[in-house]
Structures are given as C-alpha cells and as structure tokens.
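Summary of Year 1 activities. Much of the first year was spent building the evaluation harness for sequence design. The harness presents a backbone, in tokenized form, and records the residue chosen at every position. We chose the following record to illustrate the format because it has been used consistently in internal testing since the harness was completed.
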C-alpha cells in the first residue's frame, strides 16, 4: 500500500500549497466576483459557503483528484454495503442503515440487519410512547416524569447534544437528565430534586463494561431500592441499551428491558440507534424519525452527488488542505445558535476519537500531520473570550461558523444582532485590516501621531484566516439530523484520505487499564512500587489526606 504522500495528487498539492501560502483571500475575492457562487453549495437543509478558504479553482481540482486517487467513492460504497471497513476490529460500519428510511437489505455476516433496525425502531416507538403517555408506571403506580440517562462518550454526547438542541420541540411531558461523569457530584445533583417513584433510568453502554457508567448505574440502583424497599422496583425503573445483553442482565436489568445495539454501530455514531431512546422519549417518536430522515437526506447526498458538490467531501478536503498542507493545528466549531451549545463537545469525540491517530491502515507511522484539535464554543460567547486569538495570534485556526436563518425562539431584535456578528466575524477573519488602514482610521478620529505610532501595530489584523459557513434555515429535528450526518461523513472521508482507521479507538485503552490497576491499589491501600516517582508521589499525597 502506497503512503498517501507518494500519490501524484498529494505531491501536486504539496507544491501548490507553497504557492498558496502567500495568497490573500482578499485579493481572490477582488479578482473573482463569482467566488461565492463558485465555492458554495445549497442543499435542502443548509447552505455551505467555503469561499473564505485559501483556495482557487486549481486547489479544488487538485483536491478532487486526491479524492479519486484515494478511492473515496469506492470506500464509501463499501461502508454503505456493509463491508468490514473497520479493519482492526473486523466490523462493518453501518450507522447509515439505522436511518435508511427505505430499509434496504444490508448484510452483516450473512444476516440482513435492516430487519434488526425495523425491530428496534418498533420497540423504541412503543416504549417511548408508553412512557410519554403515562402508561409505563413506576413501582408505586405513578407515571414517569423524569428520565435519567446514564452513559458516557458516544453513549451520552449524541443524545444529550440533540435533546438540548431540540428543547423547543419538546412538549415537556417527560424531562430528561444526563449523568456521564463518575464524579459523584453530578449524579447527586441530578437525583436530589427527583422522586424515585417517577424516575426511569436508561443505562446506555454499548459494552456494558465502562467503569464510570456501571458505577453511576449502581448508585442509581441503590438510590431507587433504598426508597422503594423492594428490589423488584428495578424492573419498572431500569432500562438498558447495550450490545452486551448478558452483562446488562447480570447487572439486574430484565431481559425485555434491554434494547439491542450491535457491533456495526460505533459508539460515537450511535445516537440513531436505541442509544437515542432519551431523544425519542423527550421529543416523541415522530421527531426522532425526522432526525433520522434529515440524516438520511445527507446519506443520499453523500452517495449520489458528484464530488465537486458533495458537501461532506468538500468539508473533509478543506480540513486536509488547511491542516495537512497549510499546517493548521486546530479547528474551531463556532455555532451561532444557542441550541447547538454542545456541538463542539460532540464534534470533539466524533472527529478526534475517529481520526486522532498516527499510524495508517497497515500500522505504519504516518509522516504527515493528520487531524486538528477540535475545540469551540457558542460564537457570541467565544467572541468575548478567545476570538482575540483567532484574529491576531500567530497560529491560524480554521473555523466552521454554523448559524440559522430563523431563530427557534424569536425574541425581538436578538436574532439580527446575533447574525450581524455571525456575518461580521468571518468577514473580519478573512479581510483583516492592514497598518495603513489602521493609521488612516486613527487619524480620521483625530488621534495624535505619537499615539498612532504606539497603537497602530497592535490594531493590525493580518486576516486571511479560513472559515466555512454553514447556514441552516432553522434548527429542527430534520436539519439537525442533516448537520450531524454531514460531519459524520466528513470524518469518514478525512479518514480515508489520511489512511486512518476511523472506527476504532485503541488510544483510550491504556489509561483505562492503568486506572483499573490504581483503583485496586487505592481500595486495598497498597501502592505498587512499579509506578514512576511522580505517580507514586501523587497517590501518596492523596492518600495522606483522605
Ligand atoms: O472510552 C471511550 C469509549 O469507548 C467511547 O468510544 C465510547 O463512546 C464510550 O467509551 C462509552 O462506551 P460504552 O458505550 O461501551 O459504555
């Protein structure tokens, strides 16, 4: 297998990047009045403007050649048809089947999993309706008013991000709370105001071995049984979502209360499965279906649109261009929509757990830089915190700006202010302002030369900072589904281009293993002498104070 940097399109891009390093977007916009039309794509759910990147038609042509040379389309088809593209774990990658509204047959090890999808959707529908309609009763015969979803990583971030984004679409017949942290403060705070008679716990864990989740679930079970004085209450208050049915049953959850998951769904791509049960309960099954439909719309687009207008392909290429070829180290996700306040946390897991790796499919070291650090915050809050860095630091941080044409909660005057900032920021990041202009502006304000000499260098913004703009019509289950699927496929394409195994996560194992050993030592009060002196010193310091 040839390393990517030996491909002719890669080498052409390396040479082209040298030319483009001194190219100013401002000039590109001045030279081409059609630049926006040239570098934007409109889909039913959103518009993507990527014209504010350091690219020309030649750049995109070379990037599209890279897509061809790395067989992205063939890999995409392999994913959708159930080939085991997760090579290190010998698994298919079929989160797309969970939202295939046509339920086309797809086979995994000879089994048509579209049948499993239909079955689980029926189960999610029936169960969520029963809870929402007050027909699922707690141990004392009361209806469920609160769901506490216990899970971490992919078993938490997706459902929580979605339920919080779509709060305005809930009739609030059932409230949903999340516990992900093993820090007891979180579960204590969540449980304190709740009445055990009316709480349903959903323990979401694909493996059902995650220590933090099991610890939280045990605490929840104790809380329930100490109030009900009856262990049979567990049957009415505990549901599990897992591909490890045996462990869930061993834990004490009734078999019929375990919702299936499968190894062909990666944790960070699982909100479309029964892991999304809290979403269905909170919003109703109809809205959950709309979320799936929105994602399916992008699946269709990803499979059928030519690469030149294929939005996940374009986003992936721009990330590779900005990071691998132009040297950016991080990328910001900046939503200008309160609903998306958890999006960057969600995207951190989605992209960094998928592609934050340094060996290729053959296990060989990758010489080029791969994916950036993903970070971000709601745009307006960020403006008053870290945008200084985005505008003037020596490090270039490409950013995705995500906004909505209409607010889900219109409040007079607010949306205009929000969107004015949204538009102004990408413009400012692209245009910047040079010293000559800064001096002229200060002069026009009547400032004296001495002051101008002192301040002018500090007010220069070099500009030329790349951004993508994604504009949704409005946050809705459908458009949110599309947005998430857009990024999922972007991550997939990025992985193929960079030759990364996007669907495993071995990098989380080492720390987990060591934590298990140290926990045992802490419990037994017997600190091993095999730790380094820092770790031993810290543990001893901790022990002396407890
Ligand atoms: O530790 C990382 C991880 O394995 C993620 O990949 C996963 O989403 C999360 O933990 C939770 O795992 P599980 O659903 O098996 O509890």
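For this record, the design step produced the sequence shown next.
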């Amino acid at each position: 297998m040839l390393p990517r940097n030996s491909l002719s399109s890669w080498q052409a891009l390396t040479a082209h990047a040298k030319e483009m390093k001194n190219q100013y977007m401002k000039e590109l916009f001045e030279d081409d009045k059609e630049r926006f039309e040239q570098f934007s794509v409109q889909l039913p759910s959103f518009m993507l403007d990527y014209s504010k990147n350091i690219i020309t038609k030649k750049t995109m042509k070379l990037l599209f050649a890279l897509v061809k040379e790395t067989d992205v389309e063939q890999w995409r088809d392999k994913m959708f048809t159930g080939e085991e593209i997760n090579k290190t774990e010998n698994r298919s990658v079929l989160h797309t089947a969970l939202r295939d509204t046509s339920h086309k047959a797809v086979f995994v090890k000879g089994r048509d999993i579209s049948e499993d999808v239909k079955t689980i959707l029926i189960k999610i529908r029936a169960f969520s309706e029963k809870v929402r309609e007050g027909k699922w009763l707690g141990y004392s015969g009361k209806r469920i008013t609160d769901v506490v979803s216990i899970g971490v990583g992919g078993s938490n971030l997706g459902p929580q991000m979605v339920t919080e984004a779509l709060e305005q679409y809930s009739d609030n017949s059932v409230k949903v709370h999340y516990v992900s942290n093993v820090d007891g403060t979180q579960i204590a705070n969540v449980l304190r105001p709740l009445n055990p008679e009316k709480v349903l716990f959903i323990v979401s864990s694909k493996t059902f071995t995650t220590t933090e989740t099991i610890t939280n679930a045990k605490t929840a079970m104790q809380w329930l049984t100490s109030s009900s004085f009856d262990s049979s209450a567990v049957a009415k208050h505990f549901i599990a979502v897992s591909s490890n049915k045996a462990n869930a049953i061993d834990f004490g959850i009734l078999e019929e209360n375990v919702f299936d998951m499968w190894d062909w769904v990666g944790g960070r791509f699982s909100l479309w499965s029964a892991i999304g049960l809290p979403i269905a309960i909170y919003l109703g099954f109809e809205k959950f279906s709309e979320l799936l439909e929105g994602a399916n719309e992008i699946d269709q687009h990803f499979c059928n649109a030519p690469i030149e207008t294929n939005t996940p392909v374009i986003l992936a290429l721009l990330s590779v261009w900005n990071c691998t070829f132009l040297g950016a180290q991080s990328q910001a996700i900046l939503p200008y929509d309160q609903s998306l306040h958890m999006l960057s946390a969600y995207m951190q897991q989605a992209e960094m757990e998928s592609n934050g790796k340094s060996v290729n499919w053959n296990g060989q070291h990758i010489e080029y830089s791969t994916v950036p650090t993903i970070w971000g915050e709601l745009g307006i809050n960020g403006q008053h915190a870290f945008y200084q860095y985005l505008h003037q630091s020596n490090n270039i941080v490409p950013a995705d700006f995500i906004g909505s044409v209409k607010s889900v909660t219109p409040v007079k005057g607010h949306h205009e202010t929000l969107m004015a900032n949204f538009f102004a920021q990408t413009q400012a990041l692209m245009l910047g302002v040079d010293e000559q202009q800064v001096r002229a502006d200060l002069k026009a304000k009547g400032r004296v030369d001495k002051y101008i000499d002192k301040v002018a260098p500090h007010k220069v913004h070099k500009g030329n900072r790349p951004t993508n703009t994604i504009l949704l019509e409005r946050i809705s289950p459908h458009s949110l589904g599309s947005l998430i699927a857009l990024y999922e496929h972007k991550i997939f394409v990025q992985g193929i281009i960079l030759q990364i195994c996007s669907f495993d996560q071995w990098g989380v194992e080492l720390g987990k293993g060591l934590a298990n050993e140290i926990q045992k030592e802490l419990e037994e009060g017997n600190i091993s002498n095999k730790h380094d002196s820092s770790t031993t010193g810290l543990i001893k310091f901790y022990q002396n104070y407890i």
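Residues 210 and 371 are 27 Å apart (CA to CA). Quantitative recovery figures across the full test set are reported in Table 2.
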